[in-house]
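Thought: the user asked what N-acetylmuramoyl-L-alanine amidase looks like in 3D. I have the sequence; next I should run the structure tool and report back without guessing.
Action: structure_tool
Action Input:
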Amino acid sequence: MMKKRYKSTLTALCLAVVFTLSGCSSKLTDKVTGDTDKIIEESDSTEKKDIKQVDDSLEKPNFTTNLEGQVQYVIGTQAEPLTVEASVSDGGTVSYQWYSNNVNSNGGGEQIQGQTQNTYVPDTSEEGIKYYFAVAANTKNDTISRATSTTVEVQVLPEGNWVEDGGLKKYQLHDGSFVTNAWKDIEGKHYFFDENGNMKVGWYEDPEGSWFYMNPDGNLAKDTEVDGFKIGSDGKSEDKKQAEEQDPAQ
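Observation:
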């Protein structure tokens, strides 16, 4: 009899514990779910606050400083900032976003990420022609209106041009001068120009006594063998240097 009563009491206690834990679990789940819903609601609310309603009746920004014409830069040089300025008289806030385009149009184009000031410095790392413009936005309360600037053409030119002179090749820079007595990287190739500005072809010994071989197109030879002499990855030929030291007349 005692065993049955003990067993019944134990069973009741176990059931009570299970129900209690289930209740706690349910309440905990409800709380977590509720908190998550609250976070989602707050997130949705925040996102909604960031969305502005386009209002055609809101004053559009007026460009007092606009873009025009064409500018040229030699590849790799520092460009001057492009500048626009827009204003409104209704107390709104003016902001900017810059765009680039492959055609002369201030419609479409590609948004330049992070460029949201009234100035922008064009990229000159690649040759070619790009057109730039800015969109100014007037934000007031939860409404917005926009206006687009005119375009400016930016040309990025090669550093210089090849010139033929009596069957010899020279490289003339944009300032009119020629590359002389110097190495020069041009379109991924490595050239040497002598004191007269002529592109070197064939074997060349520099002032330090190192020997190099310039291919028929003027490009420096590397990792190869010419006239029986090995040439390293840096373009130098230790074999040629040793041979010249032993017999300079060869």
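Thought: the tool returned a structure. Summarizing for the user.
Final Answer: Structure for N-acetylmuramoyl-L-alanine amidase predicted. Residues 63 and 208 are 60 Å apart (CA to CA). The two ends are 122 Å apart (CA to CA).
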